[in-house]
Amino acid sequence: LPSSNRACTEKGRAQRPKKRESAILRGSAPDYDDAARAGAREREDDEPVARAVRAVRDAAGDAAHADGDGDDSDGVHELKHLSQAAVRKIKAELMEADANHDGRINAEELKQLLRKHRATFSEKEIEEIGELFYASKAGGSVSYDRFIHAIDVATEHEQAGLDANIHFKATPTQHPLAIDKFSVEYLAGGHPVYTPEELDIKLTHTAPVTITDRLAFGTVKLLRRGFDGATRWNVGEITKTKIMLRAIYLETIAAVPGFVGAMFRHFRALRTMQRDGGWTNLLLEEAENEKLHLLTFIRMYEPNFLFRLAVIGGQLGFATFFATAYALNPRYCHRLVGYVEEEACSTYTKIIKAIESAPDQADLASWRTDRAPAIGRAYWHLGEHGTVLDLMKAIRADEANHRDVNHLAAGVKPGQINPFYDPAAKLDQMLVKYLTDLFDTTKDQEPAAKPAA
Fold first, then answer.
1. Are 260 and 326 in contact (CB under 8 A)?
2. pLDDT in the model for residue 182
3. 0.70 cut: is pTM over it?
4. Which residue, 31, 153, 378, 417, has most beta carbons within 10 Å?
């Protein structure tokens, strides 16, 4: 460090409680460029092709993060605490964990890196950190030098004795790893990763049986016809603007039922002093999921002032109606939401088909290759290059899940356990899988030896 900076650093350290200095911090901290070049020379001569690939991918990664997902450019990082020996050791482990040898670390590679230190990190911590990193980087990665720079900054915070409860106040807005804040939304509830089979949604319909069911079905059909007519949804071709206006408005309404239902079930559990069988958590998860739909779409289209006024009016009107109806007849409300979600699945299926069948020169065709917003790629695990088309398929799968959950909730009797959170069913499934695996002889069989020539 320059003498002036070193003097300030020593003065600051003298005012802090003395701590045992880690071995990796002893000695002067070199200029990072020298340390990085020294570590890079260990593989440069042997891997010219890999070096070229890294250069191309670094450039592509920097360009990719220029779309607002977070700046990941690799400028000069002056290290203040890590010694040259520490930098080389960290970089050696990073290179070992870097499975595709692109000079960057993604979520899976980070988990492999942490698994080398199982005495320090439990498997639960490793999985949680991996999910946090994936969400924060929207499926992306960071370069070696940014990762090492982040360690150096974290070391400075540790030396300052920052408590976790005040960490957010003392740290800069932009984290050294260039992570984004939407990971907070993702980690609050999480979201399962859909398989290709789960994304292949079939349009289903639950036929109304009781008078309540018919009333709910009629209400949804009336609302659908009115909204389609007001927005001219079935007039002319489907455009990006038409899709965004419809999706954003409906998602501001769709997030209401889950929260209202959870609130009433929560209050009922307090009044009766009984458990609600996990329904409150499930409905809150549904409301949060619908909100993430909205937060993703709003990154793709910015509505005007009049649209926002319409959202406020629609939310006030629907929330009042739904809360009153839920207090009188919860079955009607859940059946209503089930039929609404049937319509949502139909709408998203229409949108997906329009994107897939759009001519290459059409504006809508670009959604086949345009990257989805970072918050969407993180929440639905779409990967670093997940497209808007992938996003629409994941959202349709969500709507299908809400459809099935609410139709099921409409038929659940008081006191029945939420089947999606039923611990007995989970344990029974585990026992059957254990027994099947225990007596599976195929996994122990070795391939037959080839006959001698």
1. yes
2. 53
3. no
4. 378
Secondary structure tally for the chain: helices H, strands E: 18, 2
Range scoring the smallest mean pLDDT among 51-65, 68-82, 386-400: 51-65
Q: Are the C-beta atoms of residues 21 and 86 closer than 8 Å to each other?
A: no
One-letter amino acid at 253 equals I
- What local confidence, expressed as pLDDT, does residue 186 receive? 55
Helix (H, G, I), strand (E, B) or coil at 333: helix
**Measured over all CA atoms, what is the biggest interatomic distance in the chain, rounded to whole angstroms?**
84
Half-sphere exposure of 30 (CA within 13 A, CB side): 14
Encode 44-80: b = buried (16+ Cβ within 10 Å), e = exposed.
eeeeeebeeebeebbeebeebbeeebbebebeebebb
- At position 274, the amino acid (one-letter code) is Q
Q: At CB < 8 A and 24+ separation, what contacts does 346-350 make? A: 346/203, 347/246, 348/392, 348/395, 348/396, 348/399, 349/201, 349/203, 349/396, 350/238
Cα Rg, the chain, nearest whole Å = 27
| pLDDT single digits (tens) 355-374 | 999 999 899 999 999 999 98
